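Fold this sequence, please.
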Amino acid sequence: MFRTLLLASALLATAVCAAPAAELPPAIAQRGTIVAAIVPNYPPLDLRDPASGQLTGFDVELGNAIAAKLGLKMQWQETSFEQMLAAVKTGRVDIILSGMSDLKSREDTADFVDYLQSGSQMFTQASRAKEFATAEALCGKSVGASRRTALVNDVKAFSDKNCVAAGKPAITVVGTEGSADARTQLRQGRIDAAMQGGETLPYIMKQEPNTYAPVGEPVRFTQMGIAVGKDNAKLRDAIASAARGLMADGTYARLAKKWDLEPSMVKEISINAGD
């Protein structure tokens, strides 16, 4: 009788563990992996550990946890930011998990499982913090932001509303080759301030103490999502279900705390909630 109960318990546990995988696309369930595009240049979401050279960050740990929840492994594939959406559209990768903003313009290509929020935050050198006590103090100054993102539009929109409309000089928007380049130009004094996702600043400020200071509040919030091909609803829904499970069991909050991302946490996992 005892052996029968043990066998029944084992079979039940196996069935429970296998249930999520049964909802996956057959090809992915058979392969046993999810291929995820990543660009490891956006700490603390995506980076290489300076000591080991291994991929790490919030996205990497969350992605590995999602895959494990589904009885799979995550296979990370490095690519360029410009190639990511094309890669998921053509099936070269299954998903994008690399701090990508969920924008309506991108939802024509992919569905997004939204898991964080990003605030477009301006910042300056710590030595000039008093000079720019408010974001409006940047009117007539130069602000750099990655031209690969919507941040350059956010800077211009802020300038139009808070500088030009108020009769003040416009902000000069400087498109850069990424957030790291913007910070380099800021340190060199080539620009007065920069803008990047506010979720990255606590990490950067820890790595480079007494170097940067936020200016004002984020000017806009966007959803960040895991991008899945439009023809892959089963995978999208399985990933959303796994992410919700990680939120329920506390893994999501634990990882957010580990990577200083608690202000960027969302209350619920949503699909295509970007604007």
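The chain has two domains: 2-101+231-268, 119-221. The first helix runs from residue 2 to 22.
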